Amino acid sequence: MTEEEVIELIDSSLAEEFELERSEMTPEANIYEDLGLDSLDTVDMVIVLEGAFSFKIREEESVRAIRTLGDIHRFVLTKVSENG
Amino acid sequence: MALEPVVITGAGIICALGHSLEALTTALLRGESGVSYVPELERVGGLRTRVAALVDGVDPKQIPRRFRRSMSRMSMYAYLASLQALEMGAFPEENLANGRTGVIIGSTLGSTETSERFFADYFTDHSLERMRSGLFFQLMGHSCAANVAQSLGITGRVLAPASACATSCQAIGYAYEQIAFGRQDAILCGGADEFHPLTAATFDILHAASTAYNQEPQQASRPFDAARDGVVCGEGSGVLLLENKKIALQRGAPILAEVVGFATTSDTSSIANPDVTAMHTCMRLALEDAGIQAHEIDYVNAHATGTLQGDIAEVEALACLLGDKVPVSSFKGHLGHTLAASGAIELSATVAMMQRGEIAPTRNLHNIDPQCSAVALLQHNLQINPKYVLKNNFAMGGINSTLILRSYTHD
After folding, report:
1. I want to staple B363 with a disulfide (CB 3.0 to 4.6 A). Which of B99, B126, B327, B333 is the partner?
2. Over pLDDT 90: what percentage of chain B?
C-alpha cells in the first residue's frame, strides 16, 4: 500500500465507524476536542484499525499517546512499514 | 404517613401502530392491526409462527451517535418514547438533573439481537478482540433505563424491573410508589422490547404462539375469541411521565389521569401457567390500595394475550371480583403482545381513550369463547367516560400486576 492508500483507509474506516465528516478529518484535528471521540471510542478505534490493517496494536504503549488524526496516520504508517 | 397524589402528565409510544400516543390511539379506535407476515421467521428451524407486530420507520441516526453507540433497538425505542413523554408533559429541562427525577424502565432481557450478533462473531474463533466497547451497555439488564437516563441527563433514581410481560406495569407501579412516598417528584416509567425469533420461539415451544393464521396475519391475534390459538409477539416501547400531583399542578402541567392503586404479587402455583386465585388476589389488593370498591371500576384493560388458558383465567378472576357488567377489552388483538412494553403501551392508550370518551374493543373478537363469556367483553367501540380503570399485566415466572387509574376530569 502507498502512504496515501494507508491514510485513505484509516480515514475512511474511522469516518464510517464514528460517523465523522471527512472535511473535518485534517491531520491536525484533535480526536477528542475536534472529532468528539472519548475513551470508549478509542477502544473501538483500536479494533477498527486492527481490522482494517490486520495487525495487533492493543498492547502498544504508543497508542495511548495519540492525540491527533496525524498521530494515528504516523502510528499506522510505522506499523505497516514494520510489518513489511 | 400521608402519601403524595400521583398523576400522569405525558406518554410516549413507539410500536407497530405508530410513533406517538395520538397515532396509536387513533389506530386502535379505527380497529387497525399492526401484525404482519415476517419472512425471516421462515429460516428458523422448528419455529411454526410467522407473524409479528414490528416497529417500522425508526431511523437510528436521529439519535446522536454518542448515545446510540450503547443502545440496542429496545433502548432506542425507550429513548424516543421518553422524549415524547417529556415533550407531552412540557417537563422543565432544569428538573431532569435535580436528583428528584428518575427513570424506571425495564425489558424482558438485555438485547437478544445484540447477543446473537456478538456470539455469531465470537464462535468463529472464540476471540474477544473484535468486541466493541458498547457491547456490554447494550446487553446489561438495565440497558434501557440507563441509556434513557444518560441520554436525557436524568440524575435521580434509575431502576430496571425485569418481569417479562409484567415489566412495565410494575415499572409504573413502582414509580407511583416512589412518588407517593415523596422519594421522587417525577419519573419516566415503562418498558421496551425488541422482536427476535427467540422471543416468538419462547411461546412457540410452549404451544402458546399463534400458528394457524400465518397466511392471515391481521387475524392472528384474537384474545377471548373462540378461534384464538396463541400469542403474536410485538415490539416497541411505552413510557409514561408520572409526577407528584401538587408539583405538576404548580407548574401547570397537562394532567392526563391519576394513578391511585397498584399491586403486584407472585403466583407460586406454576412458573408458566396462570392461576385464577392469584390473579384475583392481585386485583383485589390493587383495589384496596386505591381505597375503592370493585363496583366502582368502569373499564378493564385486560392483559389477555390470546392464549387458551390465560384469557380464561383472567376472565374468571375478573368475573369473580367485578361481576359481569364491567366493559373489558384487550389491545393485543391490534398490537400483538409487546411484552415488557405492553403494560405501558396499553395503559397509555387507555388514558388517551379515557380522555376521548371512547374505548376500543378487542380486535378479532368475532365469536366469544364460551369460557370467556362471564364478563362484558367489548366487540365494538364504546362511548364512555370511565372514572376508574383497572389495568392488568401477568407474566411468566408467576408475576402478576395491576394498576388502578382515576380520570382526572372527575376531580
Report:
1. B333
2. 98
pLDDT at B252 over 70: yes
Of residues B226, B231, B217, the one with CA closest to residue B366: B226
**Nearest 5°: CA angle at B68, between B82 and A69?**
150
* Residue B338 CB-half CA count within 13 A: 37
Which set of grid coordinates corresponds to residue B364? Answer: 378479532
CATH architecture of A3-82: Orthogonal Bundle (1.10)
> How far is residue B165's CA from residue B234's CA, in Å, rounded to a whole number?
11
Residues of B in contact with A43 (CB under 8 A): 132-133
Q: Is B65 on the interface with A (CB under 8 A)?
A: yes
Rounded Cα gap, residues A78 and A80, in angstroms? 5
Q: Residue B129: which of A36, A38, A50 has the nearest Cβ?
A: A50
Chain A nearest-CA distance from B238, in A, is 29
Q: The cell 433514581 sits on which residue? A: B157
Look up residue B275 and give its DSSP letter. Answer: -
Q: How do residues B170-204 score in pLDDT, each as one tens digit?
A: 999 999 999 999 999 999 999 999 999 999 999 99
Asked if pLDDT for residue A82 goes beyond 90, the answer is no
Residue B304 CA, distance from chain mean position: 12
Partners of residue A38 in chain B, C-beta under 8 Å: 66
Q: And the C-alpha cell for B288? A: 384496596
- Three-class secondary structure of residue B240 per DSSP: strand
Domain layout of chain A by residue ranges: 3-82
Q: Residue A37 in contact with residue A18, Cβ under 8 Å? A: yes
What is the phi-psi region of residue B126: left when phi exceeds 0, alpha when psi lies from -120 to 50, beta otherwise? left
**Residue pair B37/B51 in contact by the 8 Å Cβ criterion:** yes
- List the one residue out of B403, B372, B409 whose CA is nearest residue B390: B403
In chain A, residues with a C-beta closer than 8 Å to the C-beta of B124 are none
Q: Cα(B273)–Cα(B85) distance, rounded to whole angstroms?
A: 34
- ipTM surpassing 0.85, yes or no? yes
Of B144, B153, B301, B150, nearest in space to B237 by CA: B144
Name the grid cell of B326.
Answer: 364491567
Residue B51 bridge partners (DSSP): B37
In whole angstroms, give the CA distance from residue B27 to residue B17: 6
pTM of the model: 0.96
pLDDT bucket at B12, cuts 50 / 70 / 90: very high
Q: Which domains are seen in chain B, by residue range?
A: 6-250 (3.40.47.10), 261-410 (3.40.47.10)
